[in-house]
Design goal:
The protein starts with 6 loop residues before the first helix and ends with a helix. β7, α9 and β8 form a beta-alpha-beta unit. Strands 1-2-10-7-8-9 form a 6-stranded mixed beta sheet, with helices on both faces. α4 runs parallel beside α5 and α12 packs across α13. It has about 350 residues and is of the alpha/beta class. It is globular and about 70 Å long. The protein folds into 2 domains: about 230 residues, Rossmann fold, CATH 3.40.50; about 100 residues, Rossmann fold. It is built from 14 helices and 10 strands. It binds ligand F0G. Ligand F0G binds next to α4, α9 and α13. It comes from Calidifontibacter indicus. This is Threonine synthase.
C-alpha cells in the first residue's frame, strides 16, 4: 500500500535546499483540492478550494515546518523558537517534538484560539504569553534567534517558504496547469510569497522541467482592522475576529507586493462581518469548515464578485489555510451574533418528530 510521503519526499527534485537534510515529517501536504459547485454557481467562475486544514496539525504551516525543522536538524539545532498567532506555534511544537528538539513559542496574550493553544501545550512547547501583539512577539523571537542558540522558525526563515511553495505544485498537479487566479488570506505575508515562488518556479526551466505554462494572478486579502499592505502603513493596534491574521506589520510585506505586482493581482481587505458571512457560506454550501482567518480568501472572492471583477468562467483556486476545529466558537453564533440554542426534547419520539417538523 502506498501513502503520501510528505512534501519533502514528494517534491525532492524541486527542494534542492533540503538535499542531505534528515527528513522530519508528519505526512503533510497532499491536501484536497475541492471543486466548489456553490461558489462556482454564485460567481460564474470555476472555483476550487485548497483545504489546508487537512494537514497534520490542521493548517498550511506544516508544509513549511517540515522543511524548517529538517534544516534545523541538519544544522544540529537543539531548540527552536517562533512568534505566532497560533498555527505556527502548534506546528512548530509538533515538528520540534518529532525531531527531539525543544520549542519555545511567543504568543500575543489572550488572542490565540483555544485549539491552537492546546496543540502547542500538548506537544510540549514552552509557551510564553507576551504582553503585546504578534508584531511584538516576532521582534522578540528574531532577537532571541540572533543572540542565543535557538533556531527561528517563522516564515522569515527561507526554509519555511521552500516548504510552503509546494502547495502551488499540488494545485498544478491536479488542474494540469496554474489557475487564472489564486486567492489567499494575508497575515505576515509568508504564504502569498511562497505560492508565488512555487508558481514562478513551475514555469521556469531553471528549476527542472516546467510543469505549468503560465502563472496565476495572486489575490491576497487582509482583515480590514489589520490591513497594513492595503493602507500602505503599519497598523499599531491590529484588530479582527480572524486572530490568525491579526498582524500590523507583516515581515514579508515587500515580497507580497512583488507577488501582487508581478502577477497583475490585488491585495485588498475584507471586514469582520464579510469574513464571518464567508465562513458561514463555506460551511453551509461547500461543507468545508475553516477558521475565520481562512475565510478571508472566500470573503475576498465574494467581494470581487460583487464588484463585478470576476472574469466569467475563470479558473480560481482559493486557499483555506486552517481547520474550523482550531477555533470552533464562530459556528455557534447566528448571523446576528446571538448564541445558537439547541432545541431541547424529552425521550419521546413524537416530541422529537414534532421538533423536526415531521409531525
Ligand atoms: N491563515 C491562517 C489560518 C494563519 O494561521 C495565517 C498565519 C495566515 C492565514 C496568514 O498567512 O502569515 O503567511 O500571510 N498565521 C501565522 C501564525 C502568523 O503565527 O500562525 P501568512
Amino acid at each position: 500500500a502506498h501513502q503520501w510521503r510528505g512534501v519533502i519526499r514528494e517534491y525532492a527534485d524541486r527542494l534542492p535546499m533540503l538535499g542531505g537534510a534528515p527528513v522530519v515529517t508528519l505526512g503533510e501536504g497532499g491536501t484536497p483540492l475541492i471543486h466548489a459547485e456553490g461558489l462556482s454557481e454564485l460567481t460564474g467562475a470555476d472555483v476550487w478550494v485548497k483545504f489546508e486544514g487537512m494537514n497534520p496539525t490542521g493548517s498550511f504551516k506544516d508544509r513549511g515546518m517540515t522543511t524548517a525543522i529538517s534544516m534545523a536538524a541538519k544544522a544540529g539545532a537543539k531548540a527552536v523558537v517562533c512568534a505566532s498567532t497560533g498555527n505556527t506555534s502548534a506546528s512548530a511544537a509538533a515538528y520540534a517534538t518529532k525531531a527531539g528538539m525543544t520549542c519555545a513559542v511567543l504568543v500575543p496574550d489572550g488572542k490565540i484560539a483555544m485549539g491552537k493553544l492546546s496543540q502547542a501545550i500538548a506537544h510540549g512547547a514552552t509557551l510564553l504569553q507576551v504582553d503585546g501583539n504578534f508584531d511584538d512577539c516576532l521582534g522578540l523571537a528574531r532577537k532571541l534567534g540572533e543572540a542565543y542558540p535557538v533556531e527561528l522558525v517563522n516564515s522569515v526563515n527561507p526554509a519555511r517558504i521552500e516548504g510552503q511553495k509546494t502547495a502551488a505544485f499540488e494545485v498544478i498537479d491536479v488542474l494540469g496547469d496554474a489557475p487564472d487566479i489564486h486567492v489567499l488570506p494575508v497575515g505576515n505575508a509568508g504564504n502569498i510569497t511562497a505560492y508565488w515562488k512555487g508558481y514562478s518556479e513551475a514555469v521556469d526551466a531553471a528549476h527542472g522541467t516546467p510543469i505549468a505554462t503560465r502563472r496565476p494572478a495572486m489575490w491576497g486579502f487582509q482583515a480590514e482592522g489589520a490591513a497594513p499592505i492595503v493602507r500602505g502603513y503599519p497598523v499599531d493596534d491590529p484588530e479582527t475576529v480572524a486572530t490568525a491574521i491579526r498582524i500590523g506589520n507583516p515581515a514579508s510585506w515587500k515580497q507580497a507586493e512583488a507577488a501582487r505586482d508581478e502577477s497583475g493581482g490585488v491585495i485588498d481587505m475584507v471586514s469582520d462581518p464579510q469574513i464571518l458571512a464567508a465562513h458561514r457560506l463555506l460551511s453551509t454550501t461547500e461543507s468545508v469548515f475553516v477558521e475565520p482567518g481562512s475565510a478571508a480568501s472566500i470573503a475576498g472572492l465574494l467581494k470581487m464578485h460583487e464588484a463585478g471583477r470576476i472574469p466569467a468562467g475563470a479558473k480560481i483556486v482559493c486557499t483555506v489555510t486552517g481547520h474550523g476545529l482550531k477555533d470552533p466558537q464562530w459556528a455557534l453564533k447566528t448571523a446576528d451574533g446571538d448564541d445558537v440554542q439547541p432545541t431541547r426534547v424529552g425521550i419521546d419520539v413524537v416530541g422529537v418528530a414534532r421538533a423536526l417538523g415531521l409531525e
